[in-house]
Amino acid sequence: MFVRAYLRASTNEQDASRARADLEAFADEHGLTIASFYAENESGTSLKRPELFRLLADSRAGDVLLVEQVDRLSRLNAEDWEKLRSEIRRIGVRVVALDLPTSWRHAANVDDDFTARMSEAINGMLLDMLAAIARKDYDDRRRRQAQGIEKAKAHGKYAGRPENTKRNSAIVEMLKAKQSWSTIQKATGCSRSTLARLAKRVPETAATS
């Protein structure tokens, strides 16, 4: 049995490895050794998470997928969550989350088949519930954010998202150096619309895609 820890943050400005110490402390407390860490900065609402699926590809039946919280694993909608759950079941990976105490027994092998099956069934149900709650929390925050923006617009107080001045300054310098748009996008992750807007600041630059 191998324990593989998954760490995720939503944006590049956040530290995906923030919870590493907590996962290591949990492993020490339960007599486990974490074989490898998989960290990435990707949205929990998307299945496009290379490190998560690299972890699953490296795993074998009986291995443990260790996460700090269920929402680090999923803020997916119902359809995408079912796809991920099906892949986890197909491989036979056992999910252990620090915020789901019923999952902790999966960190150790259980010889009694009945106990193991009951534990798996109960934990699976609670895992589904927490995944649904994580998605609802995401949807609720997005709805409140949209309502706040509409209210601010109605009162003429909405200024839009603050500019990422550090990143944009770097993009402008890359444009001045006549680097291609595709190169800049790969290096910074910005959109073509952002590039088009910033290119207006350096009209003498003939950046190409």
Describe this structure in words.
There is one protein chain. With 209 residues, the protein is α/β, with parallel strands linked by helices. The chain has two domains: 3-137, Resolvase, N-terminal catalytic domain (Rossmann fold, 3-Layer(aba) Sandwich); 165-199. The protein is 51% helix and 11% strand. A four-stranded parallel β-sheet has the order 2-1-3-4, with helices on both faces. It is elongated, with a radius of gyration of 22 Å.
Q: Percent helix among the residues?
A: 40-55%
**CATH homologous superfamily heading of the largest domain:** Resolvase, N-terminal catalytic domain
Q: Report the CATH C-level class of the largest domain.
A: Alpha Beta
Q: Termini, distance in Å?
A: 48 Å
Proportion of β residues? Answer: 5-15%
Averaged pLDDT: 85
Shape: elongated
Give the spatial strand order of the biggest sheet.
2-1-3-4
Radius of gyration: 22 Å
Q: Which class do the helix and strand fractions yield?
A: alpha/beta
Chain-wise SSE layout:
Layout: E1 3-9, H1 20-29, E2 34-41, H2 50-58, E3 64-67, H3 70-73, H4 78-91, E4 94-97, H5 113-154, H6 165-176, H7 181-188, H8 192-199
Parallel strand pairs: 1-2, 1-3, 3-4
